[in-house]
Design goal:
Structural class of chain B: mainly beta
Shape of chain B: globular
Number of strands of chain B: 11
Oligomer: heterodimer
Number of helices of chain A: 0
Strand content of chain B: over 45%
Largest interface: A-B, 24 and 23 residues
Radius of gyration of chain A: 14 Å
Helix content of chain B: under 10%
Helix content of chain A: under 10%
């Protein structure tokens, strides 16, 4: 049973517009969330993260929003650029409990295409 | 040199053959992981190791085995390869000692079983 879900396998956005990628989770013990970006023929690379004590974290064009009550997070990219075209994975972990401490649970990914 | 190195980068093998994928890291991380990526299925965990003496099965361990030869080395074996093990395989490392709970991934091994 997937604990982290990305329900949109793909998203297409025009350059300069906002890209919004969504992620839902089911495990209420998750308290740290990350986004990874993956280009073809490369491994995933860390993009941005957020702790459950925050509801927003910003890094340049990338902002992650967390809604704990809805168990939902989203990644906003503004403005979108063609170089942002990649697969984006949402991931979640717990920092404070059990043998799975620190283990990341990944969603299935969303392929973002930014067209000129 | 990359922090996490996977060898080989590409491999074609025949059904029934035994094959080993290797991973080495220079991050000094205790934790290492093996994932496979399939289209539409994302990253699925095969095995993980929290230290040299600790090996754990992930979501899809059947048909795979691992060996943690040292803190820096974690290898994945397919005992008798089958075509549905054709996939992109990633090794990753992590460390709980810092504030960063993220993983560092290798560049992947593309395995084709014919």
């Amino acid at each position: 049973d997937q604990q982290v879900k990305q329900n949109s396998p793909s998203l297409s956005v025009q350059e300069g517009r906002i890209s919004i990628l969504n992620c839902d989770y089911t495990n209420s013990m998750f308290d740290y969330f990350l986004w990874y970006k993956k280009y073809p023929a490369e491994g995933p690379t860390f993009l941005i993260s957020i702790s459950s004590i925050k509801d927003k974290n910003e890094d340049g064009r990338f902002t992650v929003f967390l809604n704990k009550s809805a168990k939902h997070l989203s990644l906003h990219i503004v403005p979108s650029q063609p170089g942002d075209s990649a697969v984006y994975f949402c991931a979640a972990t717990s920092r404070g409990w059990g043998s799975t401490l620190g283990r990341l649970y990944f969603g299935r990914g969303t392929q973002l295409t930014v067209w000129p | 040199d990359a922090d996490v190195t996977q060898t080989p980068r590409n491999r074609i093998t025949k059904t029934g053959k035994r094959i080993m994928l290797e991973c080495s890291q220079t991050k000094g991380h205790d934790r290492m992981y093996w994932y496979r990526q399939d289209p539409g299925l994302g990253l699925r965990l095969i095995y993980y190791s929290f230290d040299v003496k600790d090996i754990n099965k992930g979501e899809i361990s059947d048909g795979y085995s691992v060996s943690r030869q040292a803190q820096a080395k974690f290898s994945l074996s397919l005992e008798s390869a089958i075509p549905n093990q054709t996939a992109l395989y990633f090794c990753a490392t992590s460390d709980l000692r810092g504030a960063d709970y993220g993983y560092t991934f290798g560049s992947g091994t593309r395995l084709t079983v014919v």
